[in-house]
Design a protein that fits this description.
alpha/beta, TIM Barrel, Lyase, Ornithine Decarboxylase, Chain A, domain 1, 2 domains, 9-stranded parallel sheet, 12 helices
């Protein structure tokens, strides 16, 4: 059975580095927990002074409230169908939501408890939010929000997700600088509210140094990293803290290919292009014959790559380098393209020390 392995030492090092960077830049740190989705892993952040978190759903918020978190931002534009959940959770913790349209406000008139909100500002990603340049639209939203007595404006939130679309440092820098300047402009335009500016994407939070105009960062993927972040320059191979352990179930010699037990229900169908080839993962060493991986994993240059997946199985190509020493039943460690999706599917981790750690999905 495929197993999601976790190198705890790397994970803690990634946490410490990002928390240290936030402190160095004078930023609050509100990490996004949608990547690991684990109460135990979340608890490790407390050692680095973290007391507020970001999540992607009210279901996730409820899970982390049960493990003691009391300041939670649900970073998804508010869905009126979540009103009952919001009322239940806001009585147990300080809950913040995102708004990007006045149409949501009439539903929030039925709030039972005070709730903070951030305006979701679109600085170029184009997925959600009010365009950061639309000062009139933002002002209309803020004015309309005054009629909702238990709703309190706290500031602006930006996820510059288009930073994932290019490995070019110049392009990423332009995305970052525009987002930073847009947030600074919003803070100035609406200074009478004394708003906060929240910003979070792992690529730019990892590599940028200028955070002027930003008050709080909310990245998530940095806790594990993955092949996508490696290709973007956000991390080194040694920073990737998770790998899928998959059994070899077939070997084929023309060309040198292997079949593994590990498919779309384990890795997801997230792909990327490496060396001109669409891939879903890359081999990073093997377990020993007893399935032990105490030494972790090292990325093998130029493959083998996971190039095809069905529901349960995957095809590895360019297997010449490992063919002679890899047999049927042996376990290979494969780095995922997107660790967030892989963790969401797998529901639990096994640390290199052999401990099992459940996620939100593993509890239900």
């Amino acid at each position: 059975m495929p197993t999601l392995l976790l190198d705890k030492k790397k994970c803690l090092r990634n946490m410490e580095r990002m928390a240290g960077k936030a402190a160095e830049k004078g930023l609050s740190f509100r990490p996004h927990f949608k990547t690991h989705q684990s109460a135990e892993i979340g608890s490790w952040f407390r050692a680095y002074g973290v007391s507020s978190i970001t999540v992607s759903s009210f279901r996730m918020a409820a899970y982390f409230i049960r493990s003691g978190w009391k300041d939670i931002l649900v970073a998804f534009p508010f869905n009126p169908h979540d009103l009952a959940r919001l009322n239940a959770l806001s009585g147990a913790a300080r809950i913040s939501i995102l708004l990007d349209h006045p149409a949501a406000l009439p539903f929030l008139e039925r709030l039972d408890h005070p709730v903070d909100f951030y305006v979701d500002a679109d600085t170029g990603y184009g997925r959600t939010g009010i365009k950061a340049e639309d000062m009139e639209g933002i002002e209309n939203l803020l004015n309309a929000s005054h009629s909702v007595k238990k709703l309190h404006f706290r500031g602006f939130y930006c996820h510059a997700g288009h930073s994932y679309k290019s490995a070019d440092p110049g392009i990423k820098n332009r995305i970052h600088q525009k987002a930073r300047q847009d947030l600074a402009n919003l803070k100035k335009q609406f200074s009478s509210y004394d708003p906060l500016a929240l910003y979070g994407d792992t690529p730019n939070c990892s590599i940028q140094e200028n955070f002027n105009g930003i008050d709080e960062i909310t990245p998530g993927n940095f806790v594990f990293f993955d092949l996508m972040q490696l290709a973007l320059g956000s991390c080194t191979p040694d920073d990737i803290a998770v790998a899928m352990s998959c059994s070899v179930t077939g070997k084929y010699h023309d060309p040198r290919r292997m079949l593994i037990h590990g498919g779309a229900v384990h890795f997801s169908k997230e792909s990327m292009v490496l060396n001109g080839q669409v891939v879903f993962g890359q081999v990073a060493g093997a377990d020993d014959k007893n399935g032990r991986v105490e030494k972790g994993w090292d990325l093998l240059q130029d493959g083998p790559f996971l190039t095809g997946i069905s529901q349960e199985h995957g095809i590895l190509e360019k297997c010449e380098r490992i063919d002679d020493r890899t047999g049927i039943g042996d376990l290979l460690n494969i780095l995922p393209v997107h660790s967030c999706l892989t963790a969401n599917l797998m529901k639990e981790y096994r640390t290199l020390e052999g401990d099992l750690i459940q996620t939100l999905n593993g509890c239900f």
